Amino acid sequence: MSQPSDSSTATVRADQWLWAARFFKTRSLAKQAIEGGKIEVNSARCKPAK
Questions:
Q1: Is 16 helix (H, G, I), strand (E, B) or coil?
Q2: Domains of the chain: which residue ranges?
Q3: Burial annotation 15-24 (CB, 10 A radius, 16+ → b, else e)
Q4: Do residues 48 and 14 make contact, with C-beta atoms less than 8 angstroms apart?
Q5: For the segment 1-43, what is each residue's pLDDT rounded down to a tens digit?
Q6: Distance from C-alpha of 42 to C-alpha of 48, rounded to nearest angstrom
Q7: Model pLDDT for residues 38-50, shown as the tens digit of each residue
Q8: Which of 46, 19, 41 lies closest to 30, judged by CA?
Q9: What are phi and psi of 44, to 5 degrees?
């Protein structure tokens, strides 16, 4: 049997998280904001899939 995964190591796309957390109405809008440099993770610009 495999060990249950630790939720602290789980990864999710930035655009999906922003959409799921309801910061943006659509994933497309979240992706545009990320690509436009409006979203930073740890003081650095990120990519939609990171």
A1: helix
A2: 12-45
A3: beebbeeeeb
A4: yes
A5: 556 556 566 788 999 999 999 999 999 999 999 999 999 989 9
A6: 15
A7: 999 899 998 888 7
A8: 19
A9: -135, 145
